[in-house]
């Protein structure tokens, strides 16, 4: 029986995905652009048994309940349908990401699962096919098949909604500093949060239209190495996503008091003349986009204002198979 371990790295969206046009196919309302990070990743091992039965999912050494395994099970059904493998699967995943606190653990999780499960089933998908498959597990996973910067084209059907890498100017060496604020589980999952915002927030259409406009503009700014543009688009997309959540019914937010403190610290660093731009996802942690030339100064300036742990990330690699055993 083939046992395959794949590693996929978390990505952080610079232009956010926050809302589905088709929840069944996981087609997003707008295209999005991301940076895959070297410091946060998931290692996932999959093997299929000859017999049918319940799938087993072990996360960080703890066997998960049938309810917690349901999402993995549904995803594995897609893999079974695609590859013709019938048996039940055993999935063991080790997360090198603070879980479910907006450090996008589902992006690395489903990208690693897509790669490990298809290989364990004996199939070799192209990166684009893997990206489309990972999308069905979690939208953000669409982009984690690729290293560095990537765009997820929203598309209009299963075939046309996938990510691909986008180049950055040779002069541009992006860095992202994660300000760790809280690693507790979030109150509102990204799935529930985006569904509520899509259904009720009058700001949602403006968020999505702006993101759709900014995604190709971000790709151009990355190619040109225009850090100021990249940073402005990044902050705008995050703030508009969180603004749309605050205008939902009932309203909700991932901002904690410490989030605002961190955001103000980033602004102060920028006012002092350093390139530093904030973004934030479905949790209170703040991520700061800067470049390799300035990252040490940015970290020192943040440390001078904040007590939080800071993790410096460089662009991470594409998802890859790290072990195969018969
Ligand atoms: O696909 P999910 O459930 O991981 O949702 C991701 C949503 C954000 O991280 C907030 C934005 C994004 O584009 O990754």
From TrEMBL:
Record GO cellular component, one term: cytosol
Domain Diphosphomevalonate decarboxylase-like N-terminal stretches: 8-163
Recorded GO MF terms: ATP binding; diphosphomevalonate decarboxylase activity
Highest taxon, organism lineage: Bacteria
Lineage: Bacteria, Bacillati, Bacillota, Bacilli, Lactobacillales
GO biological process, one term: isopentenyl diphosphate biosynthetic process, mevalonate pathway
Keywords: ATP-binding, Lipid biosynthesis, Lipid metabolism, Lyase, Nucleotide-binding
Name of the molecule in the record: diphosphomevalonate decarboxylase
EC nos: 4.1.1.33
Domain called Mvd1 C-terminal: residue spans: 179-306
UniProt family annotation: Belongs to the diphosphomevalonate decarboxylase family.
Organism, as annotated: Lacticaseibacillus pantheris DSM 15945 = JCM 12539 = NBRC 106106
